[in-house]
Amino acid sequence: MVPARTPTIHRLWSGGLPHPLLNEVTGMRSPRPRTGLLGALALATGIVGVVHLGSCNPYDLLVHDRFEQAGFNSDVDILWVIDSSNSMSEIQEQIRANFEEFISAFANVDTEEGQELNYDSITDATVAFTEFLQNQERFLNYQMAVTTTDIENPGNGNQGNLRSLSGIGGNNCMTPEILTPETEDVLGDFTSLADVGVAGGGNETGLLSAAYALCKSMDAEFWDSLGNRPDTDPIKVICGNVPEDERFCNEGFVRDGAATVVVVVSDEGDDTYRSGSLPPPQFITDCVLEHNDDPFFGECDCRLAWMLDFFDGMEQPVVFATIGPTYQTLDTDVAWCDDSVINFPGPCNPFGSDVCGLDFYQQAACLSGGLFSPIQVTTTDNEPSSCVLSDFEESLRNIGALISNLARGWRLSTIPDEDSIAVIVDGQVVPNLADSPSGGWRYLPQDRAIAFSGEALPSFNAQVDIFYYPLHDRRSQVGRDLPF
C-alpha cells in the first residue's frame, strides 16, 4: 500500500525549489507521531508548523511530505455516504445491484483465504510484500460502513452515525455494522445497509455527514486533546458539535495507518455550503476580504477550502470518490485540478442544485486525488439530448479500482509542480531516474506519487523527505470560469 505521510507547508519564495535549500531542509527533524495515512511500506513523520518568510502568494507554498520505510499494511476504511432523500429510490437500487462490481475490483469475496499481512522479521516482510505485489486484491484488509446524507433527523444511520442492520429509525447510537473480509455475507449485508430509504431530510449534506462520521470514529485520546486545538481549527469546530454521548458511536471504524476513502452518492449538490455557522462567519468574512481583488474567488471557495482543511487535518486524511450531477456545458473541456482536461456528459442537474453545491462534490474528489463520476449522462444518438441514469456498473468498478490503486507509490499530499520536486533519503539527495539510469525516483501523475527504482530504493527504516511546490492553489483548481 501507499506509504503514510504527514504534509507540512512552508512559506518560501516564488519559483521552483532551489536546491541550495536542501542543506537547510535536510537539517529539519521532528518527533515521531502516530502512524499516518494510506499505510503501506511506511509510517509517517512530519514537521509541525508553518514557516512564514514574508510572501502570502499561494504559489509560494513549499510542501514537505515525510515518510519512513518501516513496514506495510493493506488497511483501507471505506465510508459510504448515501443520499436518503425522496428522489433516490432508483439510484439506491442501482448501487445495491452493482455493488459486486465495486468490491470485486479489490476484494476476493468468494474465498476464505486470509487477507491480512503478518510478519515478524524483515525477511517475512519481504516475502509478504512480494506476494502483495503479485496479488494485491487478496490482501486488501478493508472495513466498510454506511451512513446517510441526513443530519437533520436523528436515528440509526443519520447524523454521521454508522448504520446497523436494524431499520433507519430508532436510537441514534446503535452498534454499527462494519463489513470486513471476514464478514460471512458481504454482498447481502451491504445490500441491507445501502437500503437507507427515501424519508431522509431534503437538505443533503454529504461532506458534513462524512465529517461527523469521522469525528464519531475517534478514540478517547482524540477527544481529550480536542480542547487543545485552536478555536478556529475546523476539526475542533465540527467535532465540537458532536454530543458527548455520541462521541464514540463509530469508535474503531477509522484505524491507525489505514487509507480512508469516502464514497458519496447523491442526485443533488451538497448543501453543506448553505450552513450559516460552518465555517464560522468571521472566517468567511476574512477569507472573502483576503481575496477581494480576485474576481474568480468567492464565498463558495472559502467554504470548500475550510471543509477540505477539516479532512486534511484528520489523523488519516481522506480520499473522496463522489457520484453526483454536473453543471458543466456538454462537450466543453473542463480544466481539472491535476492539470488534465476532462469532458463531463452534462449538464445534468435535474433539481437545479447551485453550482457551489455541485462543486463541493467534484472538487472534494479532484483535490483529494479521488474520482468524480457523473450520476447522470447525456445521450445524443440521433435523439435530442436527455439525462438518463449513469452506468453504475462502470462507476462502481472505477471506484473499486481507485481503492485498489491506493496501493501504488509514495503518495503526495497535493499535486506537485514536477519541475520543483526534490527527494531526500536519509539526508542524501536522490536523483531523478531520467538523470540516473542505475536508480532514482520518478513521478507518477496518475497516482500522484513518487516511485523509486534500482539503487535508489529506500532501505528498511529509511527516512524519505519529498519537497515540492504545489501545481495550483485551490482557486485555480475549481474547474470553472464563473465567480461566486
Helix and strand topology:
Layout: E1 6-11, H1 22-25, E2 61-68, E3 75-82, H2 89-97, H3 99-103, H4 122-134, H5 136-139, E4 141-148, H6 186-193, H7 206-215, H8 220-225, H9 234-239, E5 259-265, H10 281-290, H11 299-313, E6 318-324, E7 334-335, E8 341-342, H12 355-367, E9 371-374, E10 376-379, E11 386-389, H13 392-405, E12 410-411, E13 422-425, E14 428-430, E15 439-444, E16 449-454, E17 463-468
Parallel strand pairs: 3-4, 3-5, 5-6, 6-9
Antiparallel strand pairs: 1-2, 2-17, 7-8, 10-11, 12-16, 13-14, 13-17, 15-16
Structure description:
The protein is α/β, with parallel strands linked by helices and 484 residues long. It folds into two domains: 6-71 and 410-474, no CATH class; 75-406, von Willebrand factor, type A domain (Rossmann fold). The chain has helices spanning 22-25, 89-97, 99-103, 122-134, 136-139, 186-193, 206-215, 220-225, 234-239, 281-290, 299-313, 355-367, 392-405; strands at residues 6-11, 61-68, 75-82, 141-148, 259-265, 318-324, 334-335, 341-342, 371-374, 376-379, 386-389, 410-411, 422-425, 428-430, 439-444, 449-454, 463-468. It has a five-stranded antiparallel β-sheet with strand order 1-2-17-13-14, with no helix packed on it. The protein has a five-stranded parallel β-sheet with strand order 4-3-5-6-9, with helices on both faces. Strands 12-16-15 form a three-stranded antiparallel β-sheet, with no helix packed on it. A hairpin with a 6-residue loop joins strand 10 and strand 11. Helix 11 (299-313) runs parallel beside helix 12. The radius of gyration is 22 Å and the shape is globular. Mean pLDDT is 76; it is low at 1-60, 110-117 and 474-484.
